[in-house]
């Protein structure tokens, strides 16, 4: 999907986001928004595939995504769920320009705002607000990574499930149970047992 930046709801919402997070001046925001491409992805589409060199990242306007790994046997491991108002990116692969080791999959029909990485590198040179935005993105990703590692090490399966419900209160009915189980590091059978006990 392509749209006029001045009339597109996705871009208007992103304008507000930039104002809040990066305190971007209006002229800088206008310039940046002209570079964004509103894209519609269908459920099951991949924003990034394993083995692909990422040359783009995006802001999720509406919809739902997951990061996942697939091993040599085809088994899936869900790393994270990405909801509206957050970025999707295979960042380490993008900055190194090496093949991504993960997939980014749309779990619902979704609308994103996509920007080319090469253009982003040029944007960063224009104003300090873009460094503020980048730092905010990286800090958010680091906090999530640190919490995820801590939870997997210190919490039992039930505690991780309850934490998932608190962190993603709207996702239990939007995501297939085997994906949630994979995210929690347990089997679907174990998840079913935990849910059954919690509902009694």
Please characterize this protein's 3D structure.
The chain has helices at residues 9-21, 26-35, 91-96, 117-123, 129-154, 157-167, 177-184, 188-198, and strands at 37-41, 46-48, 56-62, 65-70, 76-82, 87-88, 103-106, 110-116. With 200 residues, the protein is of the alpha+beta class. It has a single domain, classed as Jelly Rolls, CATH 2.60.120. The strands form two sheets. Strands 1-8-3-6 form a four-stranded antiparallel beta sheet. Strands 2-7-4-5 form a four-stranded antiparallel beta sheet. α1 crosses α2 (26-35) and α7 (177-184) packs across α8 (188-198). The relative contact order is 0.15. Mean pLDDT is 91; it is low at 1-7.
Classified in CATH, the superfamily is Jelly Rolls
With strands numbered from the N-terminus, the spatial order across the biggest sheet is: 1-8-3-6
- Report the CATH C-level class: Mainly Beta
What is the succession of H and E elements?
A: HHEEEEEEHEEHHHHH
User: What is the overall shape?
Assistant: globular
Residue fraction in strands:
15-25%
Overall tally of structural domains: 1
Radius of gyration: 18 Å
Low-confidence regions: 1-7
Broad structural category: alpha+beta
Task: Give the averaged pLDDT, no decimals.
Answer: 91
CATH architecture designation: Sandwich
Total number of strands? 8
Give the end-to-end Cα distance, rounded to a whole number of Å.
46 Å
Helix tally? 8
Main sheet specs? 4 strands, antiparallel
Portion of residues in helices?
40-55%
């Amino acid at each position: 999907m392509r749209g006029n930046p001045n009339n597109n709801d996705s871009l208007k919402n992103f304008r507000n986001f930039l104002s809040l997070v990066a305190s971007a001046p209006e002229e800088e925001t206008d310039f940046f928004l002209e570079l964004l491409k509103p894209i519609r992805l269908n459920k099951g589409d991949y924003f990034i595939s394993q083995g692909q060199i990422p040359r783009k990242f995006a802001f999720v306007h509406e919809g739902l995504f997951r990061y996942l790994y697939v091993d040599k046997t085809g088994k899936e491991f869900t790393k994270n769920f990405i909801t509206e108002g957050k970025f999707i990116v295979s960042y380490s692969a993008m900055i190194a320009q090496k093949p991504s080791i993960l997939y980014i999959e749309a779990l619902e029909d979704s609308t994103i705002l996509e920007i080319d990485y090469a253009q982003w590198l040029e944007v960063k040179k224009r104003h300090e607000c873009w460094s503020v935005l980048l730092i905010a993105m990286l800090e958010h990703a680091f906090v999530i990574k640190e919490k995820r590692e801590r939870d997997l090490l210190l919490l039992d399966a039930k505690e991780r499930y309850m934490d998932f419900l608190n962190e993603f209160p709207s996702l239990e009915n939007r995501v297939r149970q085997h994906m949630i189980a994979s995210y929690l590091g347990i089997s679907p059978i174990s998840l079913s047992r935990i849910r059954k006990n919690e509902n009694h």
